[in-house]
Amino acid sequence: MNQPAPCSNAANLDAAFDVLVRLIRARIKGEELAPDGELRLTFFDDGSPLGTFIRDRQPPFDEYVLLLLALAPHVRPTLLDNEIRTALAREGDFPEIGGVRDEASRTFLPTGETAAFLLAGDNLDGRFEVQQLFSPEHWFAREGVLLLEEARDGAPILSGRIVMARDWVERLTLGTAQAPAFGAGFPARRIGTALDWDDLILETEVQQRIAELEQWVRHHRTLMHDWGMAGRLRPGYRVLFHGPPGTGKTLTATLLGKATGREVYRVDLSSVVSKYIGETEKNLAALFDQARNREWILFFDEADALFGKRTSVKDAHDRYANQEISYLLQRVEEFDGLVILASNFRANIDEAFLRRFNAIIRFPFPAVDERLAIWNRTLPAQTDRECLAGQLARFELSGGNIVNVVQFAALATIAKGRNAIHLDEALLGIQRELEKEGKVFRNLLEEPGA
């Protein structure tokens, strides 16, 4: 038989489900399993993501079976149902094996009872060991791999469904987790940039601070695991970017992701914050649960809306608002990746958050030399950059302002049928940009001494 391509998980899944089928048949027939495991963990170390996962993790047989039970409805939806029906000597229900049926697809979905029956049968100690696989301390829960749904009040504790997180289903089947779609379940959008570090013009000190941040992104795994610091340091890294609009906060976040191979997600605060009690916490939980163990960078722009100063408690709304902030603080501290908060003013951020930041980086308004460098980087090649940039650098504009001015001036130039920006288009662009911010335009080039 032809082997699948090395990058595919198919060979390992075929072998794994063969083990699961034999286990189901043996248990239903009441056959005793050998103490050393007559059914063994089988896998191919073929370079596939699943093969590499099993080689690195080396899960014991009970964990292996639990992973397969959680995967089966997604990969072979009829496997459990068919094997149970075939193996049964009698018609009707078989309550020992548990399971529930999905209302829409009618697929048999395994429960904790299913896992306990297959792995332990009537052995009480064995069943207790299975129950421990669903504990919050187990790596299944810590890393968000799978969970046991909470049982209804009064129902058997193992009667909840075994649910594998969507990203783990994708990793163990497709080989890589797909980006979640933007929505209530994931209120964040992926952002990127076509620019490089050379396009980011900042003070030398700020560049050094950003380089230190990049070091954490690149080496935190080595620090935590190889150096054994996981038990001594808090997970993740929290940093505040503060400074006027247009000074490079968002661009820095995207460049960090680009340079280190990490995806950057900008959190949509309008989708997170809700006027309904409890909804903000729910939205935040969905966001952080999806992002856990993904090596993502979470970017909270205009973070004051969530991380602002707590209010004095005057009514129930204030009390719940403060609870939301406390909950957010907890989730940020538990997150194992990089969280970047961006704010125009450091003073707007609650002190409880500031004390917990690993770094606070100020993005100052660009000085004349920096504005000159930004103009030279941004103006089109066919423009007389040296002459034009030297004049325009006198105007106090941020990097974001300059980009907007160049776009306006370039379009005005094209509309006139010319191929190079002249001073008049650039000045009109500056006027429009300042008026947009409610400022008065003064042509500094016409003033005495210009």
UniProtKB/TrEMBL annotation:
<dbReference type="GO" id="GO:0005524">
    <property type="term" value="F:ATP binding"/>
</dbReference>
<dbReference type="GO" id="GO:0016887">
    <property type="term" value="F:ATP hydrolysis activity"/>
</dbReference>
<dbReference type="InterPro" id="IPR003593">
    <property type="entry name" value="AAA+_ATPase"/>
</dbReference>
<protein>
    <submittedName>
        <fullName>AAA superfamily ATPase</fullName>
    </submittedName>
</protein>
<keyword id="KW-0067">ATP-binding</keyword>
<comment type="similarity">
    <text>Belongs to the AAA ATPase family.</text>
</comment>
<keyword id="KW-0547">Nucleotide-binding</keyword>
<dbReference type="InterPro" id="IPR027417">
    <property type="entry name" value="P-loop_NTPase"/>
</dbReference>
<dbReference type="Pfam" id="PF00004">
    <property type="entry name" value="AAA"/>
</dbReference>
<feature type="domain" description="AAA+ ATPase">
    <location>
        <begin position="235"/>
        <end position="367"/>
    </location>
</feature>
<dbReference type="InterPro" id="IPR003959">
    <property type="entry name" value="ATPase_AAA_core"/>
</dbReference>
<dbReference type="InterPro" id="IPR050221">
    <property type="entry name" value="26S_Proteasome_ATPase"/>
</dbReference>
